[in-house]
Write a structure and sequence with these properties.
alpha/beta, seven-stranded antiparallel sheet, 38 strands
């Protein structure tokens, strides 16, 4: 069936901000869908609150709404745009839940909008636990014995019905396993079910019999209107059931199933997708198999494109989201061509002649006190994928792709003795971030496969492969000489030059020289969807120590762009955005080559660049790609400044090895990072910086801090996302920081000296993104932080254009930015952080690279900075870009009073991280970044824009109810006016005794409540934490007192986070919230697309130029 003629416009809902469990894989799938639908001549209307995505670029859709994904906003967009259909299956759980809310509110029926991709019944059948159970049983398959519960009493009765503990708890309508867990006793049950009932939009949880230790598999399927079904990919979890699939190491295709078991899973999967009624798209089904009996249980299904869909697409080369979008508008699988072969239809199932391994990346170090045990609630923040000819090769490549110290197998020091080995085996029984490393060390110490299987329940085949790695390592270490055969054996099993060097006790460079002397280099194979049965037209490559290379020669000059590797806090999707923009901008002049290892991103889509290498971002792997491409044709150079710290850290070594680096030189990058060199740049420019010093030992650190004067900001060298950065208020605090930093792997001085700066209290922090070509500066955007200095720029809400800076201040900022860019030697992007304090503009730091605010600034101003930066790096000038219309005549220094206001708000993952006792980790923000994503509020004035940012990030501020206030003494004067206004708006005010007294003296009625430390009174009056937990409080204002979490403050913030109520921890944020609430009371949000804003801006510019 061809394209449906009745669908002329489609509304696509995105997934909103990046959160754990719902990351940039939905940007990848949404971007694919938008491109396909527009290619079919369909008008695409996109709604997504996330400015950091390629999906929200104005040229991806016909109308792009960067607005909160709420029923109210979606209704306004539907009323304005009148789409024929709504496609909700490409925006994760956020889009599915939003679509279901529109169905329930009758909005789609009222405006005649059809739900395509998956109907409301199919969504309910896949998501509603009771309905899904009935579906599976009708298909002749089994689900785990289970009971549905809606209250805590029902939960307790369910445990008895299931025969006691342990039981697995799964809420309905959530993603990333939010609110789920394994209850081993009554205390666990109270904690997990309480959270689960609150997390579910239908207040419903499923309690099921424990199948812990079973093998876990996933199938990715697609079905069309003609009832054709294809199984795109099988995925096997290395960890047994009990660890969320997003947190498990996974492998594709499934490796330990018999043919008969695989066929049974296929039969069940196909029967379930038919019975559920997904008839125009993809779905993901999870299974558990009892290794003892072979009994198969269906765990759950997602009637949408999921996290595993992105992995399956990258693993097979089969673009699930692209095909799902075509199916949704009427095509059948046999009518859609396979892009990679060009000669087979999408109804051909992909076949793999290689092994794919995905390894998760965690961020427990960012959340002190968080429980590191892995459960059914997803905790990883990113993932890396690798492709190899064998499991061992792919596993080792994936582990080094994680780009984290201590993440790869090692053979350092003596092997563990019997006692240490027994301890490792025991520790490996509990799933945690480094479980596989513990298994490897236990094998090194002599542990056997049976012993490890009994402890971990990891399939013996995988354990046997780990034993094989140990045997290879022993052979490499024990060989009389490093012969060609020994080295080739190590390479075929994925050992890096660094690992071989450590085993032999020689240098990495020596291993490389020996390897090259033997002519041992990787060849590059192609992902072709069909195990080489048909020729592949798309150069999507992976390395292997095999025989023949498939890299085609070329005549055009190439530019190699290094991506950012796995997502992590501090280096996320924003950097992928810049890399994709670079490839788009440079494609006219060059052959673009992308090197990256993140399966979730747009940059690793096979048709974004001319060539894609799915490889780890290490010096060895990148150099081999460079040399393979140099052999294929001319290479103009490499771009390292757009992918964040990962490629930047390779820049100096790559240049030393003869690789031409485009744009800002590695020396200039180092000059900005090196305190003394940067100090000279500032001195020459006559710019002040806060008093600062560096230290290479604890004694030096204490001396430097004493000289500068407390409070001080301390941080290690070369970090991203403020890793290890803290504000220290006194000598005892610094001693405590040094002790904690010294305990981490590599210690406090691993990457260079510790940087110590005077901390500027009460300063306004300003962020600047600019372009420089060596002669001329283009000021991209000046952002003012809403929170004062001291909160990491990635976590702070910021506003553009700035709210309280005069044109004279902005001109001063522009002059300072130009002086720094010139002094450092920037060619391309630079990001500078300033602090304005008592009329002095201090320079805090400069980063001569793409920053995480580039996409936000680009969306807010309509100027695509990353594309312009890539062209500057390739030799263009700002003047030539202006002539070509790629940059406007005026930059951010020219103010436009009619410009809309953009507010960026960070989204924080505190609900995901709990202490072992089940309490949420502390929510106080500081100089170390903790947010996973961001949203943008965009409107005509600051109050409306801030209100939208809060609605997008946290579901909005309450318009009425009860407010609790407890602030530090230094903030008591500043809160009087905002709290008085909230009382006028009808809020009931509760406060702790000290704050209540101040409020009452200022004529504000406030009720005193008991502190946690005071406990419940004899008359039964609850403490503030009791009131928050009981749902009596709707919003909390709590500013921390000094350094560290005081017990009362922490308890209040922890209870508020657990209750999912808004919490405000700075006075500036409270003032903004009051303005936002007033704006909300003036009426519903008004919506406008980015294209409308850009058209208005262009018209105003043209009018100004005519007048000039």
């Amino acid at each position: 069936m061809p394209l449906r003629p009745d669908i002329r416009s489609v509304l696509v809902i995105g997934s909103g901000p990046i959160v754990i469990g719902q990351a940039c894989e939905f940007d990848y799938s949404g971007t694919q869908a938008c491109r396909v639908l527009r290619g079919e001549g369909i008008r695409v209307i996109l709604v997504n609150s996330n400015p950091a995505t390629i999906m929200t670029d104005p040229d991806m859709a016909d109308a792009t709404y960067v607005e909160p994904i709420t029923t109210e906003v979606l209704t306004a967009i539907i009323a304005a745009e009148r789409p024929d259909a709504l496609l909700p299956t490409l925006g994760g759980q956020t889009a599915l839940n939003a679509a279901m809310s529109l169905v329930e509110a009758g909005v789609l029926e009222r405006y005649g909008v059809e739900l395509i991709g998956a109907g409301a019944q199919a969504i309910t059948a896949g998501e509603d636990r009771d309905e899904f159970k009935a579906v599976v049983e009708r298909c002749g398959a089994e689900v785990a014995r289970s009971v549905i519960a809606h209250t805590m009493d029902e939960c307790r009765r369910a445990v008895e019905a299931l025969g006691g503990y342990p039981v697995v708890v799964r809420p309905s309508f959530t993603m990333g396993g939010l609110g789920s867990g394994i209850a081993r006793d009554a205390a666990d049950l109270e904690r997990i079910c309480g959270t689960g009932l609150a997390a579910s939009r239908t207040t419903e949880v499923l309690l099921e019999e424990s199948i812990l230790g079973w093998k876990e598999y996933e199938l990715e399927l697609m079905r069309d209107k003609a009832d054709n079904v294809v199984v795109v990919c099988s995925i096997e979890n290395v960890d047994p059931v009990g660890v969320h699939t997003g947190d498990s190491i996974t492998v594709a295709p499934a490796l330990t199933l018999t043919d008969r078991e695989m066929q049974r899973l296929r039969d069940i999967g196909i029967a379930v997708i038919r019975e559920v009624g997904v008839d125009t798209g993809g779905c993901n089904i999870q299974f558990a198999v009892d290794p003892a009996t072979g009994r198969i249980i269906v765990i759950e299904m997602n009637p949408r494109v999921s996290r595993s869909s992105a992995l399956a697409s990258k693993a097979t080369g089969f673009p699930i989201a692209k095909i799902a979008a075509r199916l949704a508008v009427g095509y059948t699988l046999d009518e859609i061509p396979n892009d990679i072969t060009g000669s087979t239809p999408a109804s051909f199932e992909p076949t793999l002649d290689y092994v794919v391994v995905k390894v998760p990346r965690f961020a427990f170090e960012k959340f002190r006190g968080a429980d590191p045990v892995l459960t059914t609630t997803m905790k990883s923040v990113g993932e890396a994928m690798a492709i190899g000819r064998s499991f061992t090769e792919a596993l080792q490549k994936a582990m080094r792709s994680i780009d984290k110290r201590g993440a790869v197998f090692h053979w350092d020091g003596p092997a563990p003795d019997a006692a240490a080995t027994a301890a490792l085996v025991e520790r490996a029984a509990v799933p945690a971030e480094h479980r596989l490393l513990d298994v490897q060390q236990a094998i090194r110490g002599g542990a056997g496969v049976e012993e490890l299987f009994a402890s971990t329940r990891i399939d013996p085949w995988f354990l046997d492969q780990m034993v094989l790695l140990q045997e290879v390592a022993e052979e490499v270490a024990g060989a009389p000489a490093l012969t060609r055969d020994v080295l080739a054996l190590a390479k075929r099993h994925g050992f890096s030059d660094v690992q071989v060097a450590a085993l032999r006790g020689i240098g990495e460079d020596t291993v490389r020289e020996v390897r090259h002397a033997f002519g041992l280099r990787p060849v590059y194979k192609t992902v072709d969807t069909c195990a080489a049965e048909f020729a592949a037209r798309t150069p999507y490559h992976y390395s292997s120590y095999d025989l023949e290379s498939e890299v085609a020669p070329r005549e055009r000059e190439a530019v190699i762009i290094l991506g950012s590797g796995p997502n992590r806090i501090g280096q996320g999707i924003e950097f992928d955005y810049s890399c994709v923009h670079a490839t788009m901008a440079l494609a006219e002049r060059y052959e673009t080559v992308m090197v990256n290892c993140n399966p979730e991103t747009v940059s690793t889509d096979y048709d974004v660049s001319d060539r894609l290498y799915f490889e780890p971002l290490t010096f060895e792997d990148v150099m081999e790609v460079y040399e393979a491409e140099s052999a294929a044709g001319p290479v103009a150079g490499m771009v390292v400044q757009l992918g964040g710290q990962t490629p930047l850290s390779l820049a100096a070594r790559l240049k030393a090895a003869g690789v031409p680096i485009l744009g800002t030189s590695p020396e200039a990058i180092d000059a900005a990072e090196d305190r003394q060199a940067f100090g000279v740049v500032l001195e020459r420019a006559g710019l002040p910086a806060p008093a600062h010093g560096t230290a290479l030992s604890d004694e030096q650190a204490l001396v430097v801090a004493g000289r500068i004067g407390f409070p001080v900001l301390v941080r290690p060298s070369y970090v991203l996302g403020g890793r290890g950065m803290e504000i220290v208020y006194d000598r005892e605090g610094l001693v405590d920081y040094l002790a904690r930093a010294g305990a981490e792997s590599g210690g406090a001085y691993a990457n260079g000296p510790l940087l110590i700066d005077r901390f500027l209290d009460d300063a306004i922090e300003i962020d600047v993104d600019a372009l420089y070509d060596g002669e001329e500066l283009f000021l991209g955007g000046v952002m003012e932080h809403i929170e004062e200095a001291g909160i990491h720029s990635g976590d702070s809400a910021c506003v553009l254009p700035p709210m309280s800076l005069s044109d004279a201040e902005i001109a001063r900022i522009r002059r300072s930015t130009r002086a720094i860019a010139d002094g450092v030697g920037v060619r391309g992007l630079i990001n500078i952080q300033f602090a304005l304090m008592s009329d002095t503009l201090y320079v805090i730091e400069a980063n001569p690279r793409a920053s995480r605010t580039v996409p936000f600034v680009s969306k807010a101003t309509g100027v695509q900075l990353a594309k312009a930066a890539a062209l500057l790096m390739a030799g263009e000038t700002i003047a030539s870009l202006r002539r070509a219309g790629r940059l406007p005549g005026s930059d951010a220094a020219a103010s436009d009073p009619f410009d809309p206001i953009a507010v960026k708000e960070a989204v924080l993952p505190f609900r995901r991280f709990r202490t072992p006792e089940g309490r949420a980790v502390d929510t106080v923000l500081g100089p170390e970044m903790r947010s996973t994503g961001e949203v943008m509020g965009y409107d005509v004035d600051f109050p409306r824009a801030f209100a939208k940012s809060q609605a997008g990030a946290y579901g909005g501020l309450p318009g009425e109810g009860t407010l609790f206030v407890s602030v530090a003494d230094r903030d008591k004067r500043a809160i009087v006016l905002p709290v008085a206004r909230l009382a006028e708006l009808g809020f009931t005010i509760y406060a702790t005794a000290g704050t209540a007294q101040v409020l009452r003296r200022n004529g504000i009625p406030a009720t005193s409540v008991r502190k946690v430390s005071e406990g419940v009174s004899e008359r039964g009056e609850m403490t503030i934490v009791g009131l928050i937990e009981s749902g009596a409080i709707d919003m909390v204002v709590n500013t921390p007192k000094g350094q560290g979490a005081r017990a009362d403050g922490y308890s209040i913030r922890e209870a508020t986070t657990s209750a999912d109520k808004p919490i405000i921890t700075t006075v500036q944020e409270l003032q903004a919230a009051v303005q936002a609430l007033e704006a909300q009371l003036r009426g519903p949000f008004r919506v406008r697309s980015l294209q409308q804003h850009d058209a208005d801006r262009t018209a105003r510019r043209a009018a100004r130029e005519v007048r000039a």
